[in-house]
Amino acid sequence: MRVRRVVAVALAALVAAVGLAPAAPAAAATADRWGFAYVDNPTVTSWTVLDTSRQWGTWKTAFPAAWADGVKLAPGRFQVRFPQIGAGARGVPHVTPVDRAGHYCTVVRWFQSGTDEIVDVQCFAPGGTRDDSRFTVLWTASSGVLPAGTAHAYVQGGVSGLVQSYVSTGAPAALAPLGVGQWSVKLPGVGLAGVLAGNVQATAIQPNAGPRRCTVARWGASGTDVLVYVFCFDQAGAPVNTDFTLSYHRGRSVVGSLAPPTFFGHLASAAGGPTNDNSQLGVGVNTIAPLAPAGRYLVTFKQLGQKETHAQVTAQGTGPNYCNLTQPWSYAVDAPVDVICFDNTGSPAPYQVLVAFTSRI
After folding, report:
1. Coil, helix or strand at residue 8
2. Torsion-angle region of residue 7: left (phi > 0), alpha (psi -120 to 50) or beta?
3. Residue 258 belongs to some domain of the structure
4. Helix or strand (DSSP H, E) at 296
5. Do both 158 and 234 map to the same domain?
6. CA–CA separation, 320 vs 114, rounded Å?
7. How are the residues of the chain apportioned to helix, strand and coil, as percentages rounded to the nearest 5?
8. What is the three-class DSSP state of 304?
9. 113, 134: one domain
C-alpha cells in the first residue's frame, strides 16, 4: 500500500537525518521538572485549583502547599498553570480528552509566566467547533544522560522541522517528513535490541488554536533505536501539516522520572512483550478488555493505583481515528482506565490504543 512505500522510502533519509542534540550535563536520574493534572471543570472563568487527587509535580518538594490551577479563556480554550516550575518553551506537553462524545484537544503553546509553567489547550467537538472538554495534561522537561537500563526521550517538531529534542542516551533525535501530515522520528539507543519495548505518546500542536489531531501510525525497533511514524489530521480527517510533541519512556514513568515514581505502567494494544509493562509486577500483567459500545476498552494497571495518579492515551493507526478517556479513573489498587476510540465523525469505533499510567510515588 502507498503508506508502506512512503515509509520505506523515507527510512533511509530518517537514519541519516540529524536533529537537535540535547544538553549534556551530568547524569540525571529524573526529569528536571514535571507536572500533571486533570481538568475536571473546563468552564471556570477565574483561576481555580484543579482536582487535587489527580495532580502532582516537582514543585511539591519546595512548595508542598501549592496546587496546579486553571482558567477558561474562550469556548474550548483552557490554560493550566503548574506553579514554581517555569522553564519557558522547554520540554513537551501531552493532552488527553476525558470525554465520551468525541471531543479532542490540541496544545496551542506552553510558556513561562513568572515562576510558573502554563500549558494552553484548545478543545473541539467533532467537526471542529471549539467546545469545552475535560482533559488530562502533563508537561515535562529533561536533560542529562541516563543509565542504559531505562530510557526517556521526546521531540517537538513537524512542519516546523525539529524544534527541540531530548534523548536520554545523549545521541541526537532525528525527524524526517514523509508527505503531507506524515513524519518519521528516530530515537537512537533508547529501546531494547530486537524487541519493541516501552510506550509512546503523541499530541498535536497548533499555535492558531485550529483543530488538529496526531496519532502514532506505527512504531518499531531497529536494533536499539526506536522508530515512530506520526500522522496528523484536520477536522475533516484529511492529512494536514502541523507540529506535534512525541515522547517515549521505558523502565520509567510517562513524565520521565523514576524512584519516584515507582508505581507506573503502560500498554500497547497492538503489540505484546515489554510494550505491556508494570513497574510492580513486570511484563504482560496489565490487561485490556472490550466494553460496549465497540471501540471502548477497560485497561487495568494492576497494583498501581497509589496516591495521586495520571493517565494519557494515544491512538495507533494510519487513519484519522482518535482515542480518549471516558471518565476519571477510580481509586482502586488495580487502577481501571476506561478508554474509548472514535472515527472522524466522532462515532465510537474500534482502534488500537497506547495507554500510559503513573502514580506520583
Report:
1. helix
2. alpha
3. no
4. strand 296-301
5. yes
6. 38
7. 5, 45, 45
8. coil
9. yes
Place of cell 497492538: 270
Residues 7 and 156 in one domain: yes
Is residue 171 left, alpha or beta, with left meaning phi > 0 and alpha meaning psi from -120 to 50?
Answer: beta
Decide if 334 contacts 327 (C-beta within 8 A).
Answer: no
**Residues 53 and 72 both lie in one domain:** yes
Q: Which neighbouring-strand residues pair with 195? A: 192
Domain boundary residue among 208, 225, 250? 250
Task: Please compute, for residue 263, the number of CA atoms within 13 A of its CA located in the half-sphere on the CB side.
Answer: 17
The pTM of the full predicted model, rounded to 2 decimals, is 0.92
Q: What angle do CA 130, 133, 138 make, to 5 degrees?
A: 110
Q: What is the CA radius of gyration of the chain?
A: 18
Q: Are 254 and 263 in contact (CB under 8 A)?
A: no
State the DSSP string of 170-200.
SPPPEEEEEETTEEEEEETT-SBTTB--SEE
Alpha-carbon dihedral angle through residues 13, 15, 19, 24, given to the nearest 10 degrees? -170
What does the alpha-carbon distance between residue 82 and residue 66 come to, in Å, rounded to a whole number? 9
Please check whether residues 127 and 38 belong to one and the same domain.
yes
pLDDT tens digits for range 132-179: 999 999 999 999 999 889 999 999 999 999 999 999 999 999 999 999
Digit-coded pLDDT (tens) for 261-297: 999 999 999 999 999 999 999 999 999 999 999 999 9
Residues 74 and 133 in one domain: yes
Same domain membership, residue 220 and residue 168: yes
Count how many residues are written for the chain.
361
Enclosing domain of residue 151: 2-23+145-250
Element (H, E) at 359: strand 352-359
Q: Determine how many CB atoms are found less than 10 A away from the CB of residue 165.
A: 22
* Together in a domain, 131 and 178: no
